[in-house]
Design brief:
heterodimer, A: mainly beta, five-stranded antiparallel β-sheet, 0% helix, B: mainly beta, seven-stranded mixed β-sheet, four-stranded antiparallel β-sheet, 11 strands
Chain lengths: 110, 115
């Protein structure tokens, strides 16, 4: 079952913040986040393991609520380079067989 | 270090023709994945190999699709016969041994158009 991402699309001005949510109906072992720019391959951002940890990478961070089977990606002080489609990938069994959500299209304008 | 290499980058073919997509994973990576991306269905996992052995092919849509990994440095995805609904971008991804769960390294993709 594909995880559900929300919102489907968001438009920001440079410097604004955004939150992208990912929700699964299955118990999760880990959640992975990727960003894909138009015409390019998905690029890895981060992995979160069950345990409710939060990770950060520059101004992009994420949290994982194992009990709710939800993850959120936080983008703060957005930059033009953040534009792209963000995908969460969920893993149920500590492997790398990811089921990806439908994606959230993010556009950052000057 | 070279990334995941896929060929061809673009393929246009006619319905009924055989299509073969190729992938060279990153050296030392022991897991290989084939994904298909369309606007309607998003990124779908087709098949997963570990140490050249197919582990899960439940995502392969039908018998027209087949995948092989004859050695650690090469994999193919074949569609025979192809149909217009197979039009998509096909991505190959690999991940290193001993790191689970870990980062998937995607190739640039093969864009297939079936007329």
């Amino acid at each position: 079952q594909q995880p559900v991402q929300s919102p489907q699309a968001v438009i920001l001005r440079e410097g604004e913040d955004a939150v992208i949510n990912c929700s699964s109906s299955k118990a999760l072992y880990s959640v992975h986040w990727y960003r894909q720019k138009h015409g390019e391959a998905p690029v890895f951002l981060m992995i979160l393991l069950k345990g409710g940890e939060q990770k950060g990478h520059d101004k992009i961070s994420a949290s994982f609520n194992e009990k709710k089977q939800q993850s959120s990606l936080y983008l703060t002080a957005s930059q033009l380079s953040y534009s792209g489609t963000y995908f969460c990938g969920t893993d149920n069994n500590a492997g790398n067989m990811l089921t990806f959500g439908g994606g959230t299209r993010l556009m950052v304008k000057p | 270090d070279a990334g995941v290499i896929q060929s061809p980058r673009h393929e246009v073919t006619e319905m009924g023709q055989e299509v073969t997509l190729r992938c060279k994973p990153i050296s030392g990576h022991n897991s290989l994945f084939w994904y298909r991306q369309t606007m309607m269905r998003g990124l779908e996992l087709l098949i997963y190999f570990n140490n050249n052995v197919p582990i899960d092919d439940s995502g392969m849509p039908e018998d027209r699709f087949s995948a092989k990994m004859p050695n650690a440095s090469f994999s193919t995805l074949k569609i025979q016969p192809s149909e217009p609904r197979d039009s998509a971008v096909y991505f190959c991804a690999s991940s290193p041994a001993g790191v689970l769960p870990g980062e998937l390294f995607f190739g640039e993709g093969s864009r297939l158009t079936v007329l």
